[in-house]
Write a structure and sequence with these properties.
Layout (H helix, E strand, L loop, with lengths): L4 H27 L5 H22 L8 H19 L1 H5 L6 H12 L15 H24 L1 H4 L15 H32 L4 H12 L17 H14 L3 H8 L5 H4 L1 H25 L5 H16 L14 H13 L12 H19 L8 E2 L2 E2 L2 H27 L4 H12 L7 H4 L10 H15 L3 H4 L4 H4 L2
Antiparallel strand pairs: 1-2
Helix pairs in contact: 1-2, 1-3, 1-6, 3-5, 5-6, 5-20, 6-8, 6-9, 8-9, 8-10, 8-11, 10-14, 13-14, 13-15, 16-17, 17-18, 17-20, 18-20
Amino acid sequence: MPELRPILFVVGILMSILAAAMLLPAIVDIAYGHDDWGAFVASAAITLFVGVAFVLTSRGRGFSLEVRQAFLLTALSWLMIAAFAALPFAFCELDLSYTDAFFESMSGVTTTGSTVIVGLDAAPPGILIWRAILQWLGGIGIIVMALSVLPLLRVGGMQLFRMESSDTSEKVLPRAAEIASSIGLIYFALTVICASAYAACGMPWFDAVAHGMTTIATGGFSTSDLSFGRFSSAAIDAVATAFMIIGGMPFVLYLRAIRGKPRALFEDSQVRWFLSIVAIAIAAMTVYLYQTRGDDLAFIDAFRLCAFNVVSVITGTGFATSDYGIWGAFATTGMFYLMFVGGCAGSTTCGIKIFRFQVLYATCRSVVAKLVHPSGVFIPYYNRKPIPESVSESVMSFFFLFALCFAGLALALSLLGLDYLTSVSGAATAIANVGPGLGPIIGPAGTFEPLPDQAKWLLSFGMLLGRLELFTVMILVFPTFWKG
């Protein structure tokens, strides 16, 4: 069994940081004269107590982590943060059950954006900011994990992005910490710029700050039940669309651009594929929507609706300006498949991610060429570099496990009595961390509140699976992991 002391030490530090973050919404509630500040103070006290206890009982050990410990640390960190971040939801005046509170919390830290809260427009200001903070922290958390942890664990082909400085964790981790701190500053700066742009376009400052955090994190939590439909502003929609795309691209390339290599962003094949897929999807959806609703919808309005909602779905953000589930069969089907795509590796987005489609395409292309010319030698390439066989195997394994988990989750939801569309789209939106599903219950115009508690726990597990790239969680269920 892996040594737990180093794991508990790190988890304790993270929980202490989470406790400090809980004081921010408490200050917001005090500033707005709302009594819910006590819920955050109580939650912070409990979280800090447990976090400090973990630190004190596990100190005195080195920070060196083996692979099994890294797997366990990653899964346990996200699970514990979600469990304790749920306390303010359970203690506040919304009076959510712990099941609903945990669902909302897990949706936040995994930047999924699904919600069980009805009446957001009248919700306490501290809760609205807390939801945004959770997604903002989850967004930077996944970037750091994609840079420093997943490449070392060789999860789903992420070893393609392993740092070239060294193969040893002693040298890679400090390098990752240096890069992560620089990217953190970029992440913060983009959040400020996004919030300021919203405010400049007429959004109230409170909403601008909350949406600025959830947009750059591609999270999708809003301050209104109507999401961005509340504002009915073309300028605000344009800002949101631009920053969702920014959040969907690799943040390490922004760092390279700042350091004097601006062309790196557009020379990256993953970015080109991502932007091309977004453009094609928007064009196809716009033409379809205009053809079917052209009598009461101008072309520019059709483009605006499609651009915003397509980008929101493909990046896994989950904002909405319209219920695209009623646009027609093509739109519903198209949005369903776009849920799985995701953005670039090293971004805040979820889903399968573009680079895996690239690796799969390159591998299939070389296999087909080999069938046509059996004596030839064909090597798949990614970003003009040969793809190692281990990466191809990891990516294909990821696709298989992704499909298996999606099917299993959808079947489990249907066993609980949910209809086909709710079961299938609910499984898709959870494992791809998108947010709203399809249909009248969990679609863009609905919430997950009516679902039974068992379904909410299943979907929470699906969110964790999708956010941590499947293997990081699934490996823990194998007995061989715990032996030795």
